[in-house]
TrEMBL record:
<dbReference type="InterPro" id="IPR023214">
    <property type="entry name" value="HAD_sf"/>
</dbReference>
<dbReference type="InterPro" id="IPR036412">
    <property type="entry name" value="HAD-like_sf"/>
</dbReference>
<comment type="similarity">
    <text>Belongs to the HAD-like hydrolase superfamily. SerB family.</text>
</comment>
<keyword id="KW-0479">Metal-binding</keyword>
<keyword id="KW-0460">Magnesium</keyword>
<dbReference type="GO" id="GO:0000287">
    <property type="term" value="F:magnesium ion binding"/>
</dbReference>
<keyword id="KW-0378">Hydrolase</keyword>
<dbReference type="GO" id="GO:0006564">
    <property type="term" value="P:L-serine biosynthetic process"/>
</dbReference>
<dbReference type="InterPro" id="IPR004469">
    <property type="entry name" value="PSP"/>
</dbReference>
<dbReference type="Pfam" id="PF00702">
    <property type="entry name" value="Hydrolase"/>
</dbReference>
<comment type="pathway">
    <text>Amino-acid biosynthesis; L-serine biosynthesis; L-serine from 3-phospho-D-glycerate: step 3/3.</text>
</comment>
<keyword id="KW-0718">Serine biosynthesis</keyword>
<feature type="active site" description="Nucleophile">
    <location>
        <position position="45"/>
    </location>
</feature>
<keyword id="KW-0028">Amino-acid biosynthesis</keyword>
<dbReference type="InterPro" id="IPR050582">
    <property type="entry name" value="HAD-like_SerB"/>
</dbReference>
<dbReference type="GO" id="GO:0036424">
    <property type="term" value="F:L-phosphoserine phosphatase activity"/>
</dbReference>
<protein>
    <recommendedName>
        <fullName>Phosphoserine phosphatase</fullName>
        <ecNumber>3.1.3.3</ecNumber>
    </recommendedName>
</protein>
C-alpha cells in the first residue's frame, strides 16, 4: 500500500512538474489551451459566437433587407473585403431608424449560444475579466452583456448615429471596432490599461483571428458557423463552449489534487 501511495505521489509530482514546463515547448494547440486555462482576461466576439445569430443580419431581416445584407456579412466574415467597407455597405442598405431599433430590441429574443452563460460564470468565479469585443452595434449588444452579468463598460462595439428626427445618419467611424484591425486595437489598449499578461480572444470570424497578436492567444469558435479560413488559422478550434468548460474543469480538478 505504501509503495502504491508513493507511486501515485510520484506520478502527481511528475504531472505538476510538466504543467510548469514553459509553453514554448508545447504544441501550438497545447500552448493556446494552457494560455486559456491561466488567462487573466478573455474577450469574446458576439455575433455567431456568444449569440447564435449575426445581429446585423437579424436587424436587416427585421427591416425587410435580409437577403442583401446576409450575403455581404458572409463576405466580410470570410475576409473578402475590409470590415469597414462591409459595415458601411450593409448599413446603407438597412438604414435603420431609432424607432426600428427600439422595436427590434423589444421583439427580438436573445439567442445565447449553449454553454456561454456557464462559461462566463466560471470565468468570473476564477477572477478572469470578461469583455465583449464586437463589430456589431452597441445598442444590440448591451442587453446580451447584461444577461451574462458582464458590465456594459466591458463592451466594445460600434455606435449608430441618428439625425434629430430619428433617421439613420451613419455610424461612428472613430470606433476602432468599425474597421479591420479594430479588435486588435481594443485588445492592445486593454493590455496597456490593465496590464493583462494572458489575454485570450475567442470568436468565429476573420476579425477575431487577426486580433492575435496582440491577443496572447486566439481560440476559433465554430459552434454556430464554421468558417474554413478561420479554422485553418486557429491553433485551437472548438465547436462548443463545453470544450472550454471541460478544459477549465480539468485544471480545477488538478489544482484540488
Amino acid at each position: 500500500m505504501a509503495l502504491f501511495s508513493l507511486k501515485n505521489n510520484l506520478q502527481l509530482a511528475t504531472l505538476k512538474t510538466l504543467s510548469l514546463v514553459s509553453i514554448s515547448v508545447m504544441s501550438p494547440q497545447q500552448t493556446v489551451q494552457e494560455l486559456f486555462r491561466t488567462a487573466d482576461c478573455v474577450c469574446f466576439d458576439v455575433d455567431s459566437t456568444v449569440i447564435q445569430d449575426e445581429g446585423i443580419d437579424e436587424l436587416a431581416k427585421f427591416c425587410g433587407r435580409g437577403e442583401e445584407v446576409k450575403k455581404l456579412t458572409a463576405e466580410a466574415m470570410g475576409g473578402n473585403m475590409t470590415f469597414q467597407e462591409a459595415l458601411k455597405k450593409r448599413l446603407d442598405i438597412i438604414r435603420p431608424n431609432v424607432s426600428q431599433i427600439k422595436e427590434f430590441l423589444d421583439t427580438f429574443p436573445i439567442h445565447l449560444t449553449p454553454g456561454i452563460p456557464e462559461l462566463v460564470k466560471i470565468l468570473h468565479e476564477r477572477g478572469v475579466d470578461v469583455y465583449l469585443v464586437s463589430g456589431g452595434f452597441r445598442s444590440l449588444i448591451e442587453p446580451v452583456a447584461l444577461k451574462l452579468g458582464i458590465p456594459t463598460r466591458n463592451v466594445y462595439a460600434n455606435r449608430l448615429k441618428f439625425f434629430f428626427n430619428g433617421e439613420y445618419a451613419g455610424f461612428d467611424e472613430n470606433e476602432p471596432t468599425s474597421r479591420s484591425g479594430g479588435k486588435g486595437m481594443v485588445i492592445r489598449r486593454l493590455k496597456e490599461q490593465h496590464g493583462y499578461q494572458r489575454l485570450v480572444m475567442i470568436g468565429d470570424g476573420a476579425t477575431d483571428a487577426e486580433a492575435s497578436p496582440p491577443a496572447d492567444a486566439f481560440i476559433g469558435f465554430g459552434g454556430n458557423v464554421v468558417r474554413e479560413e478561420v479554422k485553418r488559422r486557429a491553433a485551437w478550434y472548438v465547436t462548443s463552449f463545453q470544450e472550454l468548460i471541460s478544459s477549465l474543469a480539468i485544471q480545477t480538478s488538478f489544482d484540488m489534487n
